């Protein structure tokens, strides 16, 4: 195992302190304290590093941190210092072929595991700004916000993305962001209205260029086919009107209307509104695919969450058994109760867990 000298460790701690403004626990015991009034948030630290650290110093800091992280990749303080340096001076990481996005995700994971959720979120937001268009960062940030219960911030982020796409005229990408919001909060009627408005714009935009050609065709045929076409058009309109209207939070109406429009398109090759109906059918198909993808995505999230809780339940159960063996029945009872709260109803250890809790509660009453 590589061993660094005390002098080398001191240099590393000086670099970390210079970038983060936070001394290690050992340095604090020796009297070093955080700088009074120094920035603490990731964005402020990056701005300070960009202003105060020149390129030569940044290069030296980068070499020092990368050498240390090669020996201890899970060192949060050193990795955070490297990310602050890389965000302030991107050329440092590029020179060493270090991915800002990959290291940012790794740091966010370590910070989240250590309970520093806000710091992990702040770091991911900075990386997302520096590496625009990286879906993995967006997904990581969205997952972190969802896991930490920050759905309001996640909704605001999705709204901003949708507005950006709309300003650029990319309505097809704006709608999925709004649909993600509805998956998080079904009560957002304003978002549902925005989706309907955008869909209407899509249909109108596609239909507008086709109307002129359709009018010419109608004029040429109207004299001889007016009666037949009128009857046929009326019959089709009646069938369209009989189709279910898509209602919010009712997927069956979405599937029903899509199936009805598909039947009409198969049965009638040409009629006055065929283009609009075909466009609507395609939009409904995309919405169905997005709806099903959303269900699958939520199911995957739920499965991962159940797995995580099951692992935590097993960990608490084992701690309870160890505390019981040591004779610390009070802590054992607390551990078993935590395990019971997190486990599923079909867990193989649940019955034994209930027996252990009952026995310890009886012991607690008897020894009051």
Quick recap:
The protein has 368 residues and is an all-alpha fold. Helix content is 80%, strand content 0%.
Tell me what the structure shows.
The chain is mainly alpha-helical. It is 80% helix and 0% strand. The chain has 16 helices and no strands. The two termini are 52 Å apart.
- The tally of beta strands, per DSSP, is 0
Separation of the first and last Cα atoms: 52 Å
**Roughly what is the average pLDDT, rounded to an integer?**
81
Largest sheet: none
Q: Based on CA inertia axes, which overall geometry fits?
A: flat
Question: How many H/I helical runs?
Answer: 16
The secondary structure category is mainly alpha
Order of helices and strands: HHHHHHHHHHHHHHHH
Low-confidence stretches: none
Instruction: Tell me the helix content.
Output: over 70%
Strand content: under 5%
Rg, Å, rounded: 30 Å
Q: What topology does this entry show?
A:
Layout lengths: L5 H15 L4 H5 L12 H11 L2 H17 L4 H13 L1 H6 L4 H14 L3 H14 L4 H13 L3 H17 L3 H14 L4 H54 L8 H17 L6 H53 L2 H14 L7 H17 L2
Task: Give keywords.
16 helices; 368 residues; mainly alpha; single chain
């Amino acid at each position: 195992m590589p061993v660094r000298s005390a002098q080398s460790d001191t240099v590393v701690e000086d670099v970390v302190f210079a970038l983060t403004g936070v001394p290690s626990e050992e340095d604090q015991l020796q009297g070093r304290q955080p700088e009074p009034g120094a920035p603490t948030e990731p964005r402020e630290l990056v701005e300070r590093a960009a202003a105060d650290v020149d390129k030569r110093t940044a290069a030296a800091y980068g070499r020092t941190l990368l050498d240390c992280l090669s020996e201890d990749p899970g060192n949060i303080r050193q990795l955070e210092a490297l990310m602050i340096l890389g965000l302030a001076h991107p050329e440092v990481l590029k020179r060493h072929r270090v991915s800002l996005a990959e290291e940012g995700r790794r740091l966010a994971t370590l910070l989240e595991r250590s309970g520093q959720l806000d710091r992990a979120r702040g770091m991911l937001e900075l990386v997302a700004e520096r590496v625009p268009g990286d879906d993995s960062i967006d997904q990581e940030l969205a997952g972190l916000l969802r896991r930490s219960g920050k759905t309001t911030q996640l909704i605001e982020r999705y709204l901003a993305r949708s507005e950006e796409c709309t300003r650029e005229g990319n309505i097809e990408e704006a709608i999925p962001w709004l649909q993600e919001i509805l998956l998080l909060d079904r009560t957002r009627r304003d978002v549902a209205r925005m989706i309907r408005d955008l869909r209407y714009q899509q249909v109108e935009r596609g239909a507008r260029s086709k109307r002129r050609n359709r009018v010419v065709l109608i004029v040429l045929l109207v004299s001889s086919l007016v009666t037949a076409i009128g009857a046929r058009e009326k019959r089709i309109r009646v069938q369209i009107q009989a189709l279910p209207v898509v209602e919010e939070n009712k997927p069956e109406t979405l599937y029903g209307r899509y199936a009805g429009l598909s039947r009409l398109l198969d049965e009638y090759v040409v009629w006055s509104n065929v283009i609009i109906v075909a466009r609507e059918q395609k939009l409904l198909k995309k919405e169905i695919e997005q709806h099903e993808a959303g269900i699958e995505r939520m199911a995957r999230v739920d499965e991962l969450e159940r797995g995580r809780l099951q692992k935590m339940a097993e960990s608490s159960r084992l701690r309870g058994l160890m505390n019981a063996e040591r004779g610390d029945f009070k802590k054992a009872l607390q551990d078993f109760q935590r395990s019971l709260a997190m486990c599923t109803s079909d867990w193989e250890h649940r019955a034994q867990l209930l027996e252990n809790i009952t026995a310890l509660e009886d012991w607690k009453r008897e020894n009051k």
